[in-house]
Amino acid sequence: MHADITLVVNGREHRLSVDTRASLLDVLREDLGLTGSKKGCDHGQCGACTILIGGRRANGCLALAVAHDGADIVTVEGLARDGRLSPVQEAFIEQDAFQCGYCTPGQLCSATGMLDEAGQGWPSTVTGDLGSEPVLDDDEIRERMSGNLCRCGAYVGIVAALREASRRKEAAEA
């Protein structure tokens, strides 16, 4: 069975007829040709497929496309703006926060969402003071990014990149 849906992906509207069983990840990759988001485990456990739906992090492999009719979706291809890398992408490059690169698109989308969540004051399980904006120290970053796995073990670089991106975001907002 197919259903007609509309998705706004990286700022562009797409009208599609999709199998009602298709995941958002498969629609992005197979129907729209956006292959940055990767299919790792296909069970929502590795984070390689992380995208932003309405600004919030989500595993594309677990999201049914038909359930997101009208949704605003950002993939790794949409993080850069006007030919400039996002601050998170720049920090990943500067801190050498990747090795093979397979998990990097999901890490970048997750990190972008995580920084927004922290900026809105959302606590994690390791946030000390629930009455103030979370401080993105290494423990906080690791906890918030725990849903994104890296088989190469580039975690030291990823944490350093997110620490740097967080500093830049704070400086830009000040």
Automatic annotation (TrEMBL):
The keyword Iron applies. It comes from the Bacteria. Signal peptide: none annotated. GO terms for molecular function: 2 iron, 2 sulfur cluster binding; metal ion binding; oxidoreductase activity, acting on the aldehyde or oxo group of donors. Pathway: Alkaloid degradation; nicotine degradation. Keywords: 2Fe-2S, Iron, Iron-sulfur, Metal-binding, Oxidoreductase. Residues 3-79 form the 2Fe-2S ferredoxin-type domain. PANTHER family: OXIDOREDUCTASE WITH IRON-SULFUR SUBUNIT (PTHR45331:SF2), OXIDOREDUCTASE, IRON-SULPHUR BINDING SUBUNIT-RELATED-RELATED (PTHR45331). This is 2Fe-2S iron-sulfur cluster binding domain-containing protein. It comes from Actinomadura soli.
